[in-house]
Amino acid sequence: MDFFIGAALIISPAQTFPIFAAVGTLKGIQKLLTIHRSRRSKTFSNVHSVHNSSPTAVEKIPSVTLEWSNVTCILSKQGSETKTILNNIQGRALPGRLTAIMGPSGGGKTSLLNALAGQFPQSRHIDLTGTVLVNGLPRSASHHRQAYVEQEDAFYSMLTAEETLQMATQLRLPASISSPERSAYVSTLVSKLGLSKVMDTRVGSKKARGLSGGEKKRLSIGCELIGSPSLLFMDEPTTGLDAFAAQKVVCTLKDLAASGHTVLASIHQPRSSIFTLFDDLVLLSEGELLYCGEACEAAQYFSSLGRTCPAGYSPADFLADLIAVDYSSPESEAASKETIARLVAAWKSRSEAVSLLPGQKAGGWISAPLDSSAENAGISSGLNGTRVGWLTQLRLLALRSWRQVIRDKPTNMARVIANVTSALIFGSIFFRMKKYQSSIQDRLGLLQVAAINTAMSSLVKTLSAFPRERVIVARERAKDSYSTAPYLTAKLAAELPIGAIFPLLFGLLTYPLCGLHPKPGRLLKYLGILTLESFTSSALGLAVGAMATSTEAASAIGPAVMVIWIVFGGYYVNQDNVPRLLRWLPSASLIKQGFQALCINEFPGLEFQPDVSGRGMTDGHQVLTWLSFDNTSVADCVLKQIRILAFYYWATFCILKAGRDSYQPMRPSVVQL
Ligand SMILES: Nc1ncnc2c1ncn2[C@@H]1O[C@H](COP(=O)(O)OP(=O)(O)OP(=O)(O)O)[C@@H](O)[C@H]1O
């Protein structure tokens, strides 16, 4: 609704634009640094030690036990057909332990992790049921802190690892925490994550190398730890990493578990050195549960079912092979599915039998009964407190945007080259235009291509960068790090000065080369019109980027919209000939406002020679009349352009504000834990 009101305020009724609706304290932080050994944990012989030298930092993190039962997820397909993504899954994850959800691709690992984290993407085709308890309470009634590290890392590529952590700390820790305390917090995180050596390294991107995949993953974990979560979910933390990096990431998770966090990670096919780091294991295949219990007991359990791990064979490989469907031939597919069905049935009957025993809740868990919870009662947050104020958010976010844009030398250089090249090409095509009748067309052509070139170049730049940034912003906003208004304001304030350089460069070269109106005041207006048009086009890119689901989608939608604005740009169709129904389109066209302003700036005062027959337009005003641009001024066009610009900013704001991810609620299952 905000969107419509805002749009109505921005756009005058006369223009009748249709509105495109789319339209704590330090103590709590230190809890993070706790070295907590679960009473139930075995000796972590191969656990890397938690590098924590500060005596004040050793404090206990609130323990969280996660239990789940009857978690079922059914996807309704076309007609009455359904697909069971998860079938009646039970289990638990304990504080101080690293629980791995393992299974073949498509086995349901991510779906289970999402369901347990309460972050299953909302869909009307999904029916999610089950019970998830945190320390014996429904998730909504528990005041625990949790974090979810997604499979895809998303960072500002031009910031260093240290700046990324500092920024996250400054935005997310309560305002009451002093600067030295924040710095101390960051250094502890850094040593804990083993990132000390790369703190000055930029995060990097595909086009500019920076941190390695493993370092990025550990940085992602670091950013999530700032919320001091007791419960940490990780989706496929080792995917895409080499063996060494994967090992280091899992060691980090193991350290975190050892310091009191409850860590749940989905892992596709771990190698044996990683497998030995798991405390507990949930095995899934085809959405069915095959095992849930201590990782080191798994091989023995399957051996009791007649599936013995061959001597010298890694248990990780053995389990991965055992629960995978072999699609190499119809016979092997049927055989492997049959094996899985038998293992599922065996686990089911075991859990039914075990759940009848006293003290057992999460069906069939292989280990001693859980000694839970008196210590967990009354979990409190160490991070209570107001986050930093609007002005601090604005300053921090502007600094981040500024660093991102100013340090992105390859992009800036490419933009300079592109603008200089096109200015030189246009300059040579329209070199020192004369005052013949034919040069009227040349002048109009130049002004039109100048308007189009300026708009396209800033649109393309925004469309290529903003959808990726939006992912980071969506994640940060989901953690309530800041509000949309300071984010957008800071972004614009930081980026506009750099963004102005390129149209100015283009304008400064084309104006003298093409021999446009000789009055110096006209040059200044020419530069101003191009710069404003460039900002408006960039704002269109922001609105499209905020709305589109991916960079690819944004890159398809943006130019398509721009083509419409070009057609109604004043050069191809005379606005008096536009059908009544579409008459609002030229007013909404940023190209039209730019082109019209450029023409009104250029033609008055110019005199042209008549053609050989003594006819033609000899006065610049006649050209404006011919274009139907005669009853308006540069100021009018600039005002309309500012309205269009404000509309796109407003649309971007509303889309970003409304665009929080929504999750599928879990309906309670009939059978309780
Ligand atoms: N919202 C959804 N709509 C349609 N199918 C879905 C949805 N969510 C999950 N699935 C399907 O459920 C199955 C399990 O998916 P999930 O992503 O949980 O598997 P996974 O074990 O994490 O696989 P991978 O290791 O390949 O990521 C897959 O076949 C997937 O296509």
TrEMBL record:
Matching entries from CDD domains are given as: ABCG_EPDR
Cite the Pfam families for this sequence. ABC2_membrane, ABC2_membrane_7, ABC_tran
- Which GO cellular component terms are attached? membrane
GO MF terms on file?
A: ABC-type transporter activity; ATP binding; ATP hydrolysis activity
Entry keyword annotation includes Transmembrane: yes
Residue ranges annotated for the ABC transporter domain, each copy included = 66-311
The UniProt keywords, alphabetically, are:
ATP-binding, Membrane, Nucleotide-binding, Transmembrane, Transmembrane helix, Transport
Q: Which residues cross the membrane?
A: 413-431, 496-514, 526-547, 553-573
PANTHER family in UniProt? ABC TRANSPORTER G FAMILY (PTHR48041:SF41), ABC TRANSPORTER G FAMILY MEMBER 28 (PTHR48041)
Q: What is this protein called?
A: ABC transporter domain-containing protein
